[in-house]
């Protein structure tokens, strides 16, 4: 397997980091002096403005490869447009501004992934318990936690347990069971969690790699059709109960009738070790306000969580479609959910609580293809041979399947997402009314850091009369030297440790 091609912590100073990059040089010994690759942490720590530099990079201190920007930051009066102040990055340490990369993948940047994970937790939990602008009444709405898996594309090494939860052999058989390629399809091992054999097909030649990458590519469409099927089942239940539909008047004056219930959801895609995605979803049932369509209100009392469970299970069982034809598969591939579909009610007093569900989904929001042993950036004709091999390992065959099938003009997107084993969807999505957005959470964090007031959602009509405008351009990615990376990440780790201790102390007092 080829090595990980993630962004280096320290960029190569011998080459420009960005288009039109011209390094800023300052007088030797000044805080903004250009630092070479061989600069040591000791030299940075002994500069007169070392603590000022630490404060300057604090926002990106824990990032593995921060974005470096140069230019000006202006403060403008909102009412008159008058320029009140302007700060040039040339007057700042290093002559640049450091910004976190914001990558959600833990394998690429653990610090930014941790921030993304906490935002994902707040986003999912707000949709179940309220807060962050979502009414607390959502805690009383019918909600379920569903897991939707992919079908089998061939036997793989897996973990199995008996009814008592004790581990049992992977694929026991009394008699030899050779496949057409002469491989014995038995496995009497009890695989541990860290066993590298997990997810690997028992016979690589028997496994249907083409069908798996096509399923990965089609999974977002399968989910879309599933939500439509759930909604239709709920609407049929509405008619069966004899509930009246609501009359709405649109902004254009058009009158329309809509059902009294609406579906909201938040879901996370998890990449299994066999290289196929499955979905974990929170599905909630809301009511409809005829005068405020965007309001989140409880559904009619006639609807309960059992109705929602029945609708989800029905949709998972019946939804299916056939892809467009391909020379390899002239009739197309049949796309369906696997047999292991699990739907459980979310109950504040039961085993499936809002906190557990939010933590579970947030955990997988920062993961990608690492579980399969493959990590790479987007592939092209120059790099595909590093990762694709039709006779190689399981991930290499999946990537080769994407590249081979992507030769057809109607399937070119498979090549675009070959590094994701065919999956082109986002790893965390939600319906519009389910909860807050990542942007709102990030903006609230920026405002809190700037004001240190702790007010998460300030009034837009308040005293904020100035506008911050950044006239910045990209310089490069990564720390300028390994010494800078060491000092910045050490300071960030110490600050993070202090915050964790403070959080534990507050929890102990509470």
Which keywords apply here?
single chain; about 500 residues
Description:
The strands form five sheets. The protein has a five-stranded antiparallel beta sheet, with helices on both faces. Strands 1, 2, 3 and 15 form a four-stranded antiparallel beta sheet that branches. The chain is of the alpha+beta class. The chain starts with 40 loop residues before the first helix and ends with a helix. A hairpin with a 5-residue loop joins β7 (246-249) and β8. The protein has a domain at 135-153 and 208-430. It is globular, with a radius of gyration of 27 Å. The model is unreliable at 1-8, 10-38 and 453-463 (pLDDT under 50). It has helices at 41-45, 50-56, 110-129, 209-241, 305-318, 354-365, 384-387, 394-405, 413-416, 438-451, 482-509; strands at residues 67-77, 83-88, 97-99, 143-148, 160-161, 167-168, 246-249, 255-258, 261-271, 277-287, 320-322, 334-336, 342-345, 428-430, 466-477. The protein contains eleven helices and 15 strands.
């Amino acid at each position: 397997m080829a090595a990980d091609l993630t962004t280096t912590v320290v960029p190569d100073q011998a080459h420009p980091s960005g288009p039109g990059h011209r390094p800023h040089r300052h007088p030797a010994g000044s805080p903004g002096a250009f630092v070479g690759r061989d600069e040591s942490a000791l030299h940075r720590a002994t500069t007169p403005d070392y603590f000022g530099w630490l404060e300057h990079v604090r926002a990106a201190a824990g990032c593995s490869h921060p974005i470096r920007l140069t230019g000006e930051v202006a403060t403008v009066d909102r009412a008159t447009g008058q320029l009140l102040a302007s700060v040039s990055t040339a007057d700042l340490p290093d002559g640049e501004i450091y910004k976190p990369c914001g990558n959600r993948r833990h394998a690429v940047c653990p610090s930014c992934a941790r921030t993304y994970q906490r935002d994902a937790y707040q986003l999912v939990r707000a949709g179940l318990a309220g807060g962050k602008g979502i009414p607390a009444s959502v805690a009383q709405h019918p909600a379920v936690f569903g897991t939707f898996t992919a079908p089998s594309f061939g036997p793989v090494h897996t973990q199995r347990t008996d009814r008592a939860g004790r581990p049992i052999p992977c694929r026991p058989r009394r008699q030899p069971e050779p496949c057409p390629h002469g491989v014995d399809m038995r496995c009497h091992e009890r695989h541990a969690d860290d066993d590298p054999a997990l997810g690997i097909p028992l016979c690589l030649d028997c496994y249907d790699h083409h069908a798996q990458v096509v399923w990965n590519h089609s999974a977002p469409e399968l989910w879309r059709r599933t939500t439509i099927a759930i909604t239709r089942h709920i609407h049929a239940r509405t008619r069966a109960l004899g509930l009246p539909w609501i009359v709405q008047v649109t902004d254009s004056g058009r009158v329309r009738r809509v059902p009294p219930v609406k579906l909201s959801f938040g879901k996370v895609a998890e990449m299994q070790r066999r290289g196929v995605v499955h979905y974990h979803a929170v599905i909630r049932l809301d009511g409809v306000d005829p005068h405020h369509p965007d309001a989140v209100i409880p559904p009619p009392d006639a609807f309960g969580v059992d109705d929602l469970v029945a609708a989800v299970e029905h949709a998972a069982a019946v939804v299916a479609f056939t892809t467009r034809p391909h020379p390899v598969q002239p009739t197309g591939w049949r796309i369906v959910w696997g047999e292991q579909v699990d739907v459980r009610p979310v109950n504040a007093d039961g085993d499936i609580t809002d906190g557990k569900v939010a933590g579970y989904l947030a955990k997988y929001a920062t993961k990608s293809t690492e579980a399969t042993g493959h990590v790479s950036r987007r592939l092209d004709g120059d790099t595909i041979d590093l990762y694709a091999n039709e006779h190689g390992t399981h991930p290499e065959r999946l990537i080769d399947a994407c590249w081979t099938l992507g030769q057809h003009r109607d399937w070119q997107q498979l090549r675009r997402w070959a590094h994701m084993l065919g999956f082109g969807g986002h790893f965390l999505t939600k319906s519009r009314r389910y909860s807050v957005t990542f942007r709102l959470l990030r903006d609230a964090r920026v405002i809190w850091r700037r004001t240190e007031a702790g007010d998460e959602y300030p009034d837009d009509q308040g005293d904020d009369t100035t506008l911050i405008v950044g006239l910045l351009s990209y310089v490069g990615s990564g720390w300028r030297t390994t010494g800078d990376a060491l000092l910045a990440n050490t300071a960030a780790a110490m600050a993070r440790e202090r915050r964790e201790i403070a959080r534990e102390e507050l929890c102990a007092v509470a």
